[in-house]
Structure formats: C-alpha cells, structure tokens
C-alpha cells in the first residue's frame, strides 16, 4: 500500500504545501495541455458568461495557478481566490503584487477574443479585483457566485471517491443556477510530488466526471486532453464545461 492511500482531505498537511516548487513544476512554462484547456474554457465563458464586468467569480483551490481566474477576468467584477493552504495563500498574495512574467503566454492563449483583448493589463486588473480567501471548500456556502472554476482540486486533495464527488457537488452548489463553470481534473492520477512531499489523488476518468456532473449541471463538453504519454503520474487532463443546473 502506498503511503497516500486512504488519505482524506483533512489528513493532509496543506499548510506546508511547497508553493514555489509547485509553481516551478507546473506554471513556470506554458504546457501544451494548459494551452488547449485555456482555449476551451475561454470560448465557453465568452458564450455563456454574464455581461462583461458584472459577475462575482470564484476559483476554488487556486494553489499557484492564476490562469483559471484569468479566464473569468473579462466577466468578473470581483474574483475570489479560495484556498485552504496557508503557504499557497501567502504565495498568491505576493504573486498578485508581483506577478511572474510566465503568466503572459497563458494570457496570450486567451487573446484574439474581443472580451479578453479589451483588457490591457490583465495581471493589474486581477490584482485590483481579486481577494485571497481562506477556506475549506467542503464548507462553501451555496449560490454565492455567478461564474466559477476549479482546476485539479476535487481529485487532487484526497484518495477517497466520496470526497472527490462531494467536492464537485459543493463547487457546483456554490454557483448560482445557470452559472457557467469550468472544472479540470488529472486523469488516472495516483498522487503527486510537490518538493519533497507527496500528495494524494483519487484516480478518476471522464466517466466519473460525467457521472458526478450529470445531476447538477447542464454539461456543455467533457474533453480529454491527451498528454501523449510524455509525462508520468497521470494519463491526461480532463476539462468539463457547462452551466449549473437550476
Ligand atoms: C493539486 S492542487 C491544484 C492547484 C491549482 N488549482 C492548479 O490548477 O494547479 C490542489 C489545491 O487545492 C487546495 N486545497 C486542498 N484542500 C482544500 C480544501 N478543502 N478547500 C480548498 N482548497 C483546498 C490545495 O491547497 C491546493 O492548492
């Protein structure tokens, strides 16, 4: 039995998550998979988001990833970056003050769409309208936000299927009826290293995502972004887009 088996979300030392190591491995450079996901999500939000600049947006379990929040930026009046981990909240607060240059290629993937092109300084805008909020997603209040993202969280915070499913349901319930959402997942992940710590994951696939969302969403698309066997530890990424049922 590997050490991370049987871990629930509350068993994990989230406050000591090595934010710099996670950023360096995942967001220092734009990966092809993330570029593809950004295109899918930006097109979805353009189609369904409330009028530009009016929505209350939430990104759940932001970690050191600003691109989900950036995809919501044209439509948001305020953005909540909701995080359980102390180290990640501190990292986010610093990052909003002094963003890494590496976010530019992520934003470039959104360009070419009028809603995104209208924003001249996306990182300044994000810093001025966002708030880093401490919280546990399992305690999220219902119906608080008009648009939402949750990337690599539900399956990457527990080994337990029940918690994976509950995380998806609670995220969806935190959005208003009809709200557009995007959620991304690692496919078939059995856990991941961040610095010298190992974190749990629940190995799920697109059928699990479909099953979880079916009762709570009008699903627009569930797309598997193939990693072409280039990376170890998972077999691809899954991105689900849709509208909250209501
Ligand atoms: C695998 S990381 C994903 C980070 C980021 N969203 C991304 O796209 O790379 C999981 C994130 O969920 C956060 N997290 C873990 N449990 C949580 C909980 N119960 N409520 C909110 N955030 C949580 C962790 O601190 C971490 O930032």
UniProtKB/TrEMBL annotation:
Q: Which UniProt keywords apply?
A: Methyltransferase, S-adenosyl-L-methionine, Transferase
- Protein name, please? NNMT/PNMT/TEMT family protein
Q: State the species of origin.
A: Paractinoplanes ovalisporus
Q: Does the keyword Amino-acid biosynthesis apply?
A: no
Nucleus among keywords: no
Q: Which domain of life is it from?
A: Bacteria
């Amino acid at each position: 039995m590997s050490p991370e088996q049987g871990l629930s979300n509350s068993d994990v030392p989230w406050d000591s998550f090595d934010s710099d190591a996670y950023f360096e491995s995942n967001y220092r450079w734009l990966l092809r998979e993330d570029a593809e996901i950004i295109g899918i999500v930006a097109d979805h939000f353009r189609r369904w988001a409330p009028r530009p600049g009016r929505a209350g947006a939430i990104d759940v379990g932001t970690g050191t990833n600003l691109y989900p929040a950036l995809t919501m930026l044209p439509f948001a009046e305020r953005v909540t970056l909701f995080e359980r981990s102390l180290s990640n909240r501190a990292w986010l607060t610093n990052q909003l003050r002094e963003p890494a240059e590496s976010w530019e290629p992520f934003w470039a993937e959104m360009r070419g769409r009028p809603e995104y092109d209208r924003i001249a300084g996306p990182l300044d805008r994000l810093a001025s309208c966002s708030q880093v909020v401490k919280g546990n997603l399992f305690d999220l209040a219902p119906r608080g936000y008009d648009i939402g993202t949750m990337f690599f969280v539900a399956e990457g915070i527990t080994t337990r299927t029940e918690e994976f499913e509950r995380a998806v349901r609670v995220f969806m319930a935190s959005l208003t009826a009809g709200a557009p959402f995007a959620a991304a997942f690692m496919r078939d992940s059995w856990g991941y290293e961040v610095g010298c710590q190992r974190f749990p994951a629940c190995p799920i696939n697109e059928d699990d995502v479909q099953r979880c969302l079916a009762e709570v969403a009008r699903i627009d698309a569930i797309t598997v972004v193939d990693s072409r066997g280039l990376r170890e530890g998972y077999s691809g990424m899954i991105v689900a887009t849709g509208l909250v049922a209501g």
